[in-house]
Design goal:
This protein is an all-alpha fold. The protein has two domains: about 1-60; about 65-295, MetI-like fold (Orthogonal Bundle). It contains ten helices and no strands. Helix 3 crosses helix 5 (about 155-180) and helix 9 (about 250-260) runs antiparallel to helix 10. The longest helix has about 55 residues, at about 1-60. It starts with a helix and ends with a helix. Residues about 1-5 have low confidence and may be disordered.
């Protein structure tokens, strides 16, 4: 009987210890979860602060004329920045047209055809290196190869500079998107008699497309807000651009120019241009993700 009582007491103490440890683990889990949630909310504070600041300072001048009129002269009121909006769209579009095919095709080669070759390793290394190069260097590069030979600043030179900035982001994210496609899909396609090219076009790319679009939109967001490369390449213009071979206005350079002058109206227009630029990037991201998520 004494042995039975002793065993029962030991079992009770063991069960009590296990319950205490479980309660301790539960409390620790709750504390760590609370810390993670708090830190996650803290990361949103800068974004929310920026949005509130842009809405507060940018909304007063926001009107239809902002999108259709030219920038006012120094010290004058009224006007808009329609030419800067068009210039930004044109140069970002040119950058996309140049960098997207190169980036995606390069990602396909290094992931689908030659993953471990020296050339693939070199391409990855160069792409990662380009992500850390200051944007002003890309502007100087485009200035040397486009502006100097043509003897003029131009939207085309701005597009080239932005394409250099966008290329590594598109290439690296496209490669990660392709790596995320399950090998079982490729094997099933090969088993049905498809060639590697057919497998890539009809199986791999459709599955990787939403993730690729995320990378492309990240590249667009970076390019749309760059100022230094465009100062070296597209410069700025107070007028509507009639071709790709002349100085062209952009929202980023307009914000830089107007925010540094001692005229209240121009400073207010810089805030409004900032709001429009943020809205443009946000709408482009949301639209792309929505469209390609549905297709997937």
């Amino acid at each position: 009987m004494d042995n039975i009582g002793t065993h029962s007491l030991d079992f009770f103490e063991l069960d009590h210890n296990e319950n205490t440890k479980a309660m301790g683990r539960s409390l620790t889990n709750r504390i760590l979860t609370g810390i993670c949630v708090t830190l996650s909310l803290l990361t949103m504070i800068p974004l929310i602060s920026i949005i509130v600041l842009l809405l507060k300072n940018g909304l007063p001048l926001l009107s239809a004329s902002i999108f259709t009129e030219l920038p006012p002269a120094a010290g004058m009121t009224g006007g808009g920045f329609g030419n800067a909006i068009i210039g930004t769209l044109v140069m970002v579009g040119l950058g996309l047209a140049i960098s997207t095919p190169v980036g995606i095709l390069s990602a396909i080669f290094i992931n689908e055809y030659s993953q471990t070759s020296r050339l693939s390793r070199a391409v990855r290394f160069v792409a990662k290196l380009l992500t850390g190069i200051p944007s002003i260097i890309c502007g100087v590069f485009a200035f040397a190869i486009v502006v100097l030979p043509n003897q003029t600043f131009s939207a085309f030179a701005g597009g080239v500079a932005l394409s250099v900035l966008m290329l590594p982001t598109i290439l690296l994210t496209a490669e990660q998107a392709l790596m995320g496609v399950q090998n079982a899909y490729r094997e099933a396609s090969y088993g049905l008699g498809a060639t590697r090219f057919q497998t890539i076009v009809r199986v791999v790319l459709p599955d990787a497309l939403p993730a690729m679009m995320t990378g492309i939109m990240l590249a667009v967001a970076r390019a749309a807000g760059e100022t230094a490369p465009l100062i070296f390449t597209a410069l700025f213009s107070q007028y509507w651009a009639s071709s790709l071979n002349e100085p062209t206005a952009s929202l980023a350079v307009l914000i830089y120019n107007f925010s540094t002058v001692p005229f209240p109206h121009q400073v207010s227009m810089a805030w409004t241009a900032s709001l429009v630029l943020v809205a443009f990037v946000t709408i482009a991201n949301v639209a792309a993700q929505t469209i390609f998520a549905r297709k997937n």
